[in-house]
């Protein structure tokens, strides 16, 4: 990848310290979810001219492992970038715009979680199963009570699920919090 | 109209006090087993005399309705009956694991060859004290739980649920319900808010013990919400729960009611207040039942309820004489009720 291509990525916001997460999510910069995620990760909200540019920019960052979060129309960009960049180790895909873009570029072997709001009327009726079929070995998460803008409508839940998935991928099915009521 | 026998699974022995929670030391172990055998016999009799459905409630820490898990009794009934629908009215959503319940109902629907009906409720104040539920959250818990169960029954592939009250990172219910896409689901119609939720969600409603005018008001609210959501409920979508004391004639029923009044033990709520036998229905009369009388009086009230939109009567027998009441009901009441359409 050339540096010129990587230059076609604009950084919109940066927050936090920790393992890197790159977010292609315009609304995230203004959402409380960013601050919640930034407590655990170094989050960089970017605008990428293309999947190729995003892949080049991540590869040039020198990081060994990067999580990518993308929403809406940018889901397709993130999936295409993941096919070209082995540094992308996990993807959280929020409110994709239909199944077709996801089917076209399933994003390579990196583990994926797809977040869909239960009130998102723009999603196909069979959205959960359709995304899971389009992205083998993915996890589909129904975010109860949220529409398309999950980060704005349920910021804590959004940050918790996304963060948990970046941390543990498929093992996020196991809780790490104790069930003890009064341990001491 | 369809008829449903509301069995109690009640304790057949004597207890010193029914103040909730009733101390377990008052429960004779053998009598508890006998109570359950009696309940099964009553449910079988209800099928034999012509009831269309039988129903089981969920209640805790009390001899009155000894069914903390209605699904267990439903499983037993499913193996002792062959025709009646078996209605779980209902699992108390704030007290249960919705996914586990979805799995159990999948089992029950298979065991009964598709005869299960279910009503998810939020429970009464004493039920909320059972496992320490916050009463202020029960409505939201119940609504979220219902949506989770419906998803669990209909999603073809595993999914995760990130709710406000429930989190399940893996949901993949086996066995699927016998009925496709799932058993009929009822919801409370007792408040405007719940009736509107049911209409919006495409659920049926159950109204308990209310006077006919209130029933009509709630059905109207429900139907308006359903129409706004693009569908039209029928009488089969509205269940009315009531208590009855019946007889060959009105005077026969009145004599039974007097016996019930004389023998009724004092019941209390967790706060110590007397439990309202009439469930808030000012038309319930001194005996606290919604249906009191012979066939003519009974049918007249049933027709009023039908005109209000009710299609299913869920009827509990007040007082004693269960077998006699059920046989009489099957002989003189059920055939006439079936003619009301």
Quick recap of the structure?
Chain A has 184 residues and is α/β, with parallel strands linked by helices.
Largest interface: A-B, 22 and 17 residues
Largest beta sheet: strand ordering of chain B: 1-2-3-4-7-8-9-11
Shape assignment of chain A: globular
- Alpha carbon gyration radius of chain A: 16 Å
Residue share in helices of chain B?
40-55%
Give an overview in words.
The complex is a heterodimer of chains A (184) and B (341). Chain A starts with a helix and ends in a 16-residue tail after the last helix. Chain A has helices spanning 3-6, 32-38, 51-60, 74-84, 100-104, 127-134, 150-153, 155-168; strands at residues 9-15, 19-24, 41-48, 66-71, 88-94, 112-117, 139-143. Chain A has 184 residues and is of the alpha/beta class. A seven-stranded mixed beta sheet of chain A has the order 1-3-2-4-5-6-7, with helices on both faces. Chain B is built from ten helices and eleven strands. The relative contact order of chain B is 0.13. In chain B, the strands form two sheets. In chain B, strands 1-2-3-4-7-8-9-11 form an eight-stranded parallel beta barrel, surrounded by eight helices. Chain B has a two-stranded antiparallel sheet with strand order 5-6. The termini of chain B are close together. The longest helix of chain B has 21 residues, at 29-49. Chains A and B meet through helix 6, strand 7 and helix 8 of A and helix 5 and strand 5 of B.
Fold blueprint:
The complex is a heterodimer of chains A (184) and B (341).
Chain A: H1 3-6, E1 9-15, E2 19-24, H2 32-38, E3 41-48, H3 51-60, E4 66-71, H4 74-84, E5 88-94, H5 100-104, E6 112-117, H6 127-134, E7 139-143, H7 150-153, H8 155-168
Parallel strand pairs in A: 2-3, 2-4, 4-5, 5-6, 6-7
Antiparallel strand pairs in A: 1-3
Helix pairs in contact in A: 2-8, 3-4
Chain B: E1 2-6, H1 29-49, E2 53-56, H2 70-80, E3 85-92, H3 98-111, E4 116-121, H4 125-130, H5 138-154, E5 159-162, E6 167-171, E7 185-188, H6 192-201, E8 204-208, H7 212-228, E9 238-246, H8 250-263, E10 291-293, H9 295-307, E11 312-317, H10 322-338
Parallel strand pairs in B: 1-2, 1-11, 2-3, 3-4, 4-7, 7-8, 8-9, 9-10, 9-11
Antiparallel strand pairs in B: 5-6
């Amino acid at each position: 990848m050339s540096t010129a291509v990587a230059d076609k990525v604009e950084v919109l916001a940066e927050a936090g310290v920790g393992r890197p997460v790159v977010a292609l999510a315009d609304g995230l910069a203004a959402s409380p979810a960013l601050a919640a995620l930034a407590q655990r990760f170094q989050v960089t909200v970017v605008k990428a001219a293309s999947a190729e540019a995003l892949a080049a920019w991540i590869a040039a960052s020198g990081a060994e492992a990067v999580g990518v979060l993308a929403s809406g129309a940018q889901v397709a960009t993130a999936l295409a970038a993941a096919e070209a960049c082995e540094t992308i180790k996990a993807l959280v895909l929020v409110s994709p715009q239909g199944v077709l873009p996801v089917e076209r570029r399933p994003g390579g072997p990196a583990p994926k979680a797809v977040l869909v709001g239960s009130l998102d009327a723009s999603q196909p009726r069979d959205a959960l199963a359709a995304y899971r079929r389009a992205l083998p070995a993915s996890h589909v998460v129904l975010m109860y009570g949220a529409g398309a803008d999950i980060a704005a409508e349920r910021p804590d839940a959004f940050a918790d699920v996304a963060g948990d998935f970046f941390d543990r991928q498929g093992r996020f099915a196991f809780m790490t919090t104790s069930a003890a009521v009064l341990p001491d | 109209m369809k008829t449903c026998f509301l069995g109690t699974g009640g304790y057949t022995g004597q207890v010193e006090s029914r103040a909730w929670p009733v101390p377990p030391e008052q429960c004779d172990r053998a009598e508890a087993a006998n109570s359950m055998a009696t309940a099964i016999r009553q449910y079988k009799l209800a099928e034999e005399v012509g009831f269309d459905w039988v129903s089981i409630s969920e209640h805790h820490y009390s001899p009155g309705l000894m069914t903390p898990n209605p699904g267990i009794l439903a499983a037993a009934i499913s193996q002792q009956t062959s025709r009646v629908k078996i209605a779980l009215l209902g699992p108390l959503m704030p007290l249960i694991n919705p996914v586990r319940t979805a799995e159990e109902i999948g089992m029950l629907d298979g065991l009964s060859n598709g005869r299960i009906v279910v009503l998810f409720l939020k429970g009464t104040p004493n039920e909320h004290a059972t496992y320490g539920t916050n009463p202020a959250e029960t409505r939201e818990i119940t609504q979220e739980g219902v949506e989770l169960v419906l998803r669990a029954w209909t999603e073809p592939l595993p999914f995760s649920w990130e709710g406000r009250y429930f989190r399940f990172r893996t949901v993949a219910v086996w066995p699927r319900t016998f009925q496709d896409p799932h058993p009929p689901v009822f919801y409370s119609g007792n408040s405007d808010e719940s009736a509107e939720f049911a209409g919006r969600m495409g659920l049926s409603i159950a109204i308990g013990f209310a006077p006919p005018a209130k029933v009509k008001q709630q059905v109207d609210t429900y139907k308006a919400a359903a129409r706004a959501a693009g569908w039209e409920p029928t009488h089969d979508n509205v269940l009315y729960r009531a208590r009855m004391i019946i007889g060959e004639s009105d005077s026969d029923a009145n004599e039974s009611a007097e016996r019930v009044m004389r023998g009724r033990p004092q019941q209390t709520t967790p706060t110590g207040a007397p439990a309202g036998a009439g469930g808030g229905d000012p038309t319930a009369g001194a005996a606290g039942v919604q249906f009191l009388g012979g066939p003519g009086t009974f049918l007249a009230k049933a027709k009023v309820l039908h005109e209000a939109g009710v299609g299913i009567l869920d009827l509990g027998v007040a007082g004693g004489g269960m077998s006699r009441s059920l046989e009489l009901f099957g002989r003189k009441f059920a055939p006439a009720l079936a003619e009301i359409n």
